[in-house]
Amino acid sequence: MDTVRKARKLPEQIADKLREMIIQEEMKTGAKLPAEAELMARFGVSRSTVREAVKILQTEHIVDIRQGQGTFLCAMPGLASDPLGLRFADQEELIAQLLETRLLVEPGVAALAAQRRQEKDLVQMKLLLDRMDNAYLHGEDYTPFDFEFHSVIARCTGNDVVERLLPTIHESIQAGYHHTQRVEGSYQRASQCHLEMYRGIMEGDSDRARQAAQRHMMQTMHDSGVDVPGVLIR
């Protein structure tokens, strides 16, 4: 009986070892895991055990199994596509709550980014601002560049937890886009706030970056028809 129980747990044990391997070897997004034969030799287990262990990691959104190519490390491993279960939230209230969350979080993120940004971050932010404007002028979807702009700011903080909040921020950007794309002057106001955030971060001015981010979120909420809680304004 004990032998059966141990056999059932073996794939989970190997999955634990695979997680440790990924962390200890500091594998990057898109990195290819060793082939099955190598993992079998490394851990002293059968092919079926390795496959079951890899499938466990796949369900946890740690690896991506590509038929005929191998197994690769996911972007933001361990982070599901809907980590907060937002699909099950009240959809009528969701946009307001997402924007409210951004108002709570992003000013502080921008302020910290102003203290920790590197030159390469500034170059990328400026490029994304230009791409956003170009997409808007050509009537194209600019939200991927919008998302990446906020992503770069979050990465500037050097805080992994902040970066893993981005799916929620992305969700609100996408939802906010559909709410504001027909509001006259909305893009121009957002663009001006983005530029102010960039300048504050570039100059290492945390107050300027924080105020620009707060103004951006308040304006987005206003354009989306969402009330801004007075207690959050300072």
Structural commentary:
Helix content is 67%, strand content 3%. A hairpin with a 3-residue loop joins strand 1 and strand 2 (70-73). The model is unreliable at 1-7 (pLDDT under 50). The chain is mainly alpha-helical and 234 residues long. The N and C termini lie far apart (64 Å). It is built from 10 helices and 2 strands; from the N terminus they run H-H-H-E-E-H-H-H-H-H-H-H. The protein is elongated. It has helices at 2-24, 36-43, 47-59, 91-116, 119-137, 143-156, 160-163, 166-180, 186-202, 206-223; strands at 63-66, 70-73. Strands 1-2 form a two-stranded antiparallel ribbon. It folds into 2 domains: 2-73, Winged helix-like DNA-binding domain superfamily/Winged helix DNA-binding domain (Arc Repressor Mutant, subunit A), CATH 1.10.10; 86-232, GntR ligand-binding domain-like (Four Helix Bundle (Hemerythrin (Met), subunit A), Up-down Bundle).
From the structure above, extract its key features.
234 residues, mainly alpha, Arc Repressor Mutant, subunit A, Four Helix Bundle (Hemerythrin (Met), subunit A), 2 domains, 67% helix, 3% strand, disordered N terminus
At CATH level 3, the topology of the largest domain is Four Helix Bundle (Hemerythrin (Met), subunit A)
C-alpha-based Rg, rounded: 22 Å
List low-confidence stretches.
1-7
Number of helices: 10
- Briefly note the structural class of the backbone: mainly alpha
CATH architecture of the largest domain: Up-down Bundle
CATH superfamily (homologous) name of the largest domain = GntR ligand-binding domain-like
**Proportion in helices:** 55-70%
Largest β-sheet summary: 2 strands, antiparallel
Shape call: elongated
What value does the average pLDDT take? 85
Q: How many strands appear in the DSSP assignment?
A: 2
Broad CATH class of the largest domain: Mainly Alpha
Secondary-structure element order, N to C: HHHEEHHHHHHH
Q: Gap between N and C termini, in Å?
A: 64 Å
User: Biggest sheet: strands side by side, in what order?
Assistant: 1-2
How much of the polypeptide forms β-strand, as a percent range? Answer: under 5%
**Count of all domains:** 2
